[in-house]
Design brief:
Elements: E1 3-9, E2 14-17, E3 22-32, E4 35-44, E5 54-57, E6 63-75, H1 87-132, H2 138-183, E7 189-200, E8 204-214, E9 217-228, E10 231-242, E11 248-256, H3 281-285, E12 287-288, E13 318-320, E14 325-327, E15 334-344, E16 346-351, E17 359-366, E18 376-382, E19 385-392, E20 400-408, E21 411-423, E22 430-442, E23 452-459, E24 468-472, E25 483-484, E26 489-496, E27 501-512, E28 516-517
Parallel strand pairs: 1-4, 2-11, 9-18, 12-28, 16-23
Antiparallel strand pairs: 2-3, 3-8, 4-7, 5-8, 6-7, 9-10, 10-15, 11-13, 11-14, 16-17, 17-20, 18-19, 21-22, 22-27, 23-26, 24-27, 25-26
Helix pairs in contact: 1-2
Length: about 525
């Protein structure tokens, strides 16, 4: 079986990034010979999962794959410096290059001085021979001797300077190499390649497709919302991290919320026992109640510490990048654009004084992006620039989206709450009266003329037992709430002119019979 010793390049052409890993795809053309041959493809990431390696020939060619495996080997790093080398190693390389240049210059200076020495010897022999024959050209002899002596002195000084610099370089190079020895331990690099055994009936070209999973890669959704008067531009991006040891250059990127690891874990079964007990006479005579706080929210994934998972609404979602992208294996976050929509939006200035005294600008619009908006952070931008960062909840296609674009300093809200108890002597019925007063003020900038509507919300308790009644005292409310929903949220739409003030009074009472305890 012939074996090709050369490594055939197999760059990454497509990547499907999952929640905590990535599926890498490589597509390349192979020139096959007739018979059985073994090919080496790569390099590939040493983190590739062996059991997920899949190879197939996609072209119509009379060839089949007999075996495919990933082989790893420790490869020492080359002598040439790279951008990933440390500053000490780059300094050693620079010192070695300077030392080599100085050694070559020293050799040239020695050769020049040796040539000048032989020239001086020949000149002195010529002077001796000329003096013996009666020649007296002392002027020319003096000039030649002076020129040779001057050049020997000049080149000798350059040689001494080069030798002194070489001594300094040797000391500095020794100190730098000692620092590298103490601070760095450069191991060999673990590289992998795919060994492919192919049987071909005839020589020709075939298309090969390789896929495998690799860890150390993940993605999370991110958004950017730009508010322009009555329209919102929502940009959907993907933050991609990868440190697989292999750069992704101009790949087709697909983003999926599939959880391949979670599918292998069966549900845990626990025993749940239900028992019935008879109530005692004292328990039958009394009703125990309590006031509890309950957050009104949709069901979602349980919160986790650290980087949150992708909330896909319980269904696998697939998103694709708009163009080929490049993601280096540096472990840093890279922002990949996915989609962008511009849609009309409704604006509301809302305040819940029980939670916060701030009046917040809330923007509502429909998701017309054509895909689900996964839960993630969103950068909020208004006309004045970046205004903060919020959170976008999971939104199905066509569903309503609600974003808070920060508070306005033009408003001031004060809340005062009072509570009084009254017990009837004859019926032993207890009545608790709650009075809430809200003072809303608007401090507008000079030049503001139009009124602005502020939505105030205040909650009223909701009773779950017939022994406790909750009643809104409409005769004492000023003004009456514009609406009260089933969850007990009272709402007022208040229009305030520049510099205007308004006071809202809400009165409600809780009444219970004498057998109710805990109110």
């Amino acid at each position: 079986m012939p074996t090709d010793p050369e490594l055939i390049p197999a760059p990454v052409t497509a990547v499907t990034c999952l929640e905590d890993r990535a599926q890498v795809e490589r597509t390349l053309a192979l020139d096959l010979r007739a018979g059985v041959q073994q090919l080496r493809l790569g390099p590939v990431s040493a983190l590739a999962v062996d059991r997920t390696l899949h190879a197939e020939l996609t072209a119509d060619h009379q060839a089949s794959i007999l075996d495919a495996r990933i082989v790893r080997a420790w490869t020492p790093r080359g002598p040439l410096p790279t951008a990933e080398d440390s500053a000490l190693r780059l300094r050693v390389h620079a010192l070695e290059e300077e030392r080599l240049a100085l050694e070559q210059r020293t050799d040239r200076l020695r050769a020049r001085l040796d040539l000048l020495g032989r020239l001086a010897t020949d000149l002195l022999r010529e002077i001796g021979e000329g003096a013996g024959t009666g020649e007296t050209d002392t002027t020319r002899w003096t000039e030649e001797l002076d020129r040779v002596d001057d050049e020997r002195d000049a080149y000798g000084e350059q040689l001494r300077a080069a030798q002194a610099r070489l001594a300094v370089l040797a000391t500095e190079l020794q100190e730098t190499e000692h620092a590298i020895l103490l601070s760095e331990q450069q191991p060999a690099e673990l590289l992998g390649h795919v060994e492919l055994t192919v049987r071909s009936a005839a020589a020709g070209q075939a298309q090969l497709r390789l896929t495998h999973l690799v860890p150390c890669a993940l993605w999370r959704p991110a958004y950017r919302a730009v508010l322009d008067e009555e329209a919102v531009t929502l940009e959907t991006d993907a933050m991609v991290w990868q440190r697989t040891g292999e750069n992704w250059s101009d790949v087709t990127l697909t983003l999926s919320t599939a959880r391949s690891a979670s599918a292998n874990e069966p549900p845990r079964l626990v025993e749940d026992r239900l028992m019935l007990t008879d109530s005692s006479p004292a328990e039958r005579r009394t009703v125990e109640v309590e006031l509890r706080e309950q957050e009104i929210a949709d069901l979602g994934p349980a919160p986790v510490l650290g980087l949150p998972g992708v909330d896909d609404g319980g269904e696998t979602r697939v998103l694709r990048a708009l163009a080929p992208v490049s993601v280096p294996a540096d472990g840093r976050a890279h922002r990949i654009p996915l989609s962008s929509i511009a849609t009309p939006a409704g604006t509301e200035y809302a305040c819940s004084p029980e939670l916060s005294p701030l009046v917040t600008q809330v923007v509502r619009f429909d998701n017309c992006s054509g895909h689900a908006l996964l839960a993630g952070p969103v950068d909020l931008v208004r006309g004045s620039g970046f205004s903060g960062r919020g959170t976008l909840d999971f939104t199905a296609p066509g569903g309503p989206v609600e974003l808070a674009f920060g508070s306005h300093d033009d408003y001031r809200v004060l809340r005062y709450a009072e509570e009084s108890h009254d017990t009837a002597t004859m019926t032993q019925r207890t009545t608790v009266t709650h009075t809430v007063r809200l003072h809303l003020s608007r401090f507008s900038a000079p030049g503001a003329e139009s009124d602005q509507t502020v939505v105030l919300r205040e909650r009223i308790p909701v009773s779950e037992v017939s022994a406790v009644n909750v009643r809104l005292r409409e005769e004492d409310c000023s003004p009456l709430p514009d609406a009260v929903d089933d969850e007990g949220i009272a709402r007022w739409d208040i229009a305030l002119p520049p510099g205007g003030r308004h006071t809202v009074t809400l009165v409600y009472e809780l009444s219970a019979s004498g057998k109710v305890k805990g109110l």
